[in-house]
Amino acid sequence: MEQTFPDAVPQFDLRDHCRAIRSELLAAFGEVLDAGQFILGPNVSAFEEEMAAYLGVAHTVAVNSGTDALILALRGLGVGAGDEVVTSAFTFVSPAEAASLLGARPVFVDIEADGFNLDPGRLEAALSPRTRAIVVVHLFGQAADLEPVLEMARLHGIAVVEDACQAIGADYRGRKVAAWGSAGCLSFFPTKNLGALGDGGLLSTSDPALASRVRALRVHGSGPKYHHRMTGYNSRLDELQAAVLRVKLKHLEGWIARRIEIAKGYDERLRAAGLTEWLILPAHRTYGRHVFHQYALRVLSGVRDALREHLAKKGIGTAVYYPVPLHLQEVYRGLGYRLGDLPRAERAAAEVLCLPMFPELRPEQQDRVVEEIAGFFKTRREGSRHSGSCYLQQPREARGQSALPRGPLGA
Ligand SMILES: *Cc1c(COP(=O)(O)O)cnc(C)c1O
Q1: Considering the chain, what percentage of its residues have pLDDT values greater than 90?
Q2: What is the pTM of this model?
Q3: Which residues line ligand 1 (CB under 6 A)?
Q4: Phi, psi at residue 378, to the nearest 5°?
């Protein structure tokens, strides 16, 4: 029987988010209705300019989704049949899917021991004479370590595309992500840190030739209209979505500040409750601002799914991003990867748990989340003591994992 909780805490909730800016959004809708232009109108152009300024890049092209931004970026950089595209094994499917759709082969790299992003130290072994591009993903809102990736790519003459779909506003050594590579890709999927009321995406680049190719690709390879230079796509950001995103962009920094505050609140509460014996808190890198698209924990001792179920019963929503690493996905069976090939990504898939995270999350809701997590470990501890059973696996220290960082690096 489904229980309902008056004090349920969802993993995300867009209703309060929209309510707070409802009148601004309705005014923007009204302007678009009155202007009567719905495809590639003044809001799309203005949004592209505002995003170029925000990211600190020369060119941006608004497209239909983050996935399309990746496809158009790779296409615009010349990726095609027979090429290889290297990316992280632990992410959403889009970078690999984009490569596959262009006839290229995705090649997966394992992640860092103490984080969720691609390990630059494992990159070189994944390169081959066919490697045409590296897609570096800034997962959960934390920049990947870009400098060694860019250096490796430069040495081998390979393009770097940044998948910044989860990381708008994150920076790396003082410059925004999506402004470092040959191209950056953003998503405005509704739950992203800057979300449309539907699908949307954007490509950023400092290369005018790439920007011009991608501009043509998003309108059927044409320019001028009805003169087709290449086989393209229909991949435009709607004028209505651009108007929504222009309203929301003004609030983005405030929302990011809230996410950072919430993450700090989780760090403090989880530590104070003594839960770092069971949980590894998100690493905070000193090289750049984490914008906490997700607050992603690792749950040790194989109890992630049991904890998740316990929290669900208490009305607390969590998410597992991502339960299956890309090299083990059914769609990539033909690539010849096996279980054990990329052990860190596999382990992350088994341990990761994302707690409720959205700017409107209240401190008392965070208290509840942490109390229920503490309650879960308390009962398991007592259960094992009283029954003498060993269903409770050993906590981290007993498994000799104390070398893993506890929470923020250096803490
Ligand atoms: C959301 C996301 C995408 C895809 O964006 P869409 O706009 O949904 O196509 C790609 N990569 C990552 C890491 C994402 O989180």
Answers
A1: 89
A2: 0.93
A3: 65-67, 91-92, 94, 137, 163, 165-166, 187, 189, 199, 201
A4: -65, -50
